[in-house]
Amino acid sequence: MAVNQHYALKDLLVRLQKVTASSKPLPFALYTANTEQKLRNLRLINPVLMFVLSGRKEIELQNGVEVVLREGECILLANRQSIVVRNMPDERPYFALIIEFYPSDKPTSYFTNGQTDFIVKPFDETFTLLLGQFVEWANISPPELWENRRQELAKFIQVQGWTEVQSLWREQGLSDQVQRFLQVTIEEPISAHEIAQHFGMSESTLRRRLKDEQTSLQQLKDDVRLGLGLHLLQSTSKPILHIALECGYQSQSRFSERFKEQFGMSPSEVRKNELTGKGESLMVNGK
């Protein structure tokens, strides 16, 4: 590894560890593991950036394409796809910066060329510096301004020549809109009738239209609750029971059972992989 790359990654990791040491919501997360993790059925509601700071990451896309990322490399993944990931430490723990984008972050007003499911960026010292500024700026700015800096990151990638970046923001179906609504209302139990009412339709129409998109309301609820659970396990030190309750499950055993069915690892196995003494951060509801 070049000396410049080594120091740029080290500097970004130090900034991330400092900022995520508090429990305040942030528009990014620092994920860590000290032993190998393999997680399946990770359903992406929004485009996501994954930047590997140390270790290695392997991603299997829904279409069968496999991508390997080494430290300093990052990937932008399109929404509306399910992936399998392997997070692998080497002689050091695995660290990765995760940033979730939202529909309003989609870059516009630039020449668009091509369609893609993902973009892999090799190490770029300027982009790494930009990420470091994003991390520190987000820590001191109000959440209402986070969108501007996410847009800046997406735009930066676009003007560097990846003009197909716009295609990572795939057209939103009703299931995506319902999932996003469930994300922001996860702390309040909400009925199927209330959800249907929010989207201006009857409950039976809501269920029929979701079935047309090959999903169900229960599946979307499970995806949101378990996705939040995975995020909290990877980025906080909260007890598993507290995470289960926060995700809407009445018991740790039920949460663990559904979690393993979905991701192929139990919450205890994921937590066992975590480093001790790290801080908390937030991605899923961190907009």
Structure description:
- The chain is globular, with a radius of gyration of 19 Å.
- The strands form two sheets. The chain has a five-stranded antiparallel sheet, covered by helices on one side. A four-stranded antiparallel sheet has the order 2-7-4-5, with no helix packed on it.
- The chain is 41% helix and 18% strand.
- With 287 residues, the protein is an alpha+beta fold.
- The longest helix is centred in the last third of the chain and has 19 residues, at 217-235.
- GO terms for molecular function: DNA-binding transcription factor activity; transcription cis-regulatory region binding.
Indicate the structural class. alpha+beta
* Largest sheet geometry: 5 strands, antiparallel
Element pattern in H and E: HEEEEEEEEEHHHHHHHHH
Q: Major sheet: order of its strands? A: 1-8-3-6-9
Number of strands: 9
Given as residue ranges, the uncertain stretches (5+ residues, pLDDT < 50) are: 276-287
Beta-strand percent range: 15-25%
Mean pLDDT: 88
GO molecular function: DNA-binding transcription factor activity; transcription cis-regulatory region binding
Keywords: DNA-binding, Plasmid, Transcription, Transcription regulation
InterPro entries: Homeodomain-like_sf, HTH_AraC, Tscrpt_reg_AraC-type_HTH
Domain HTH araC/xylS-type: 176-273
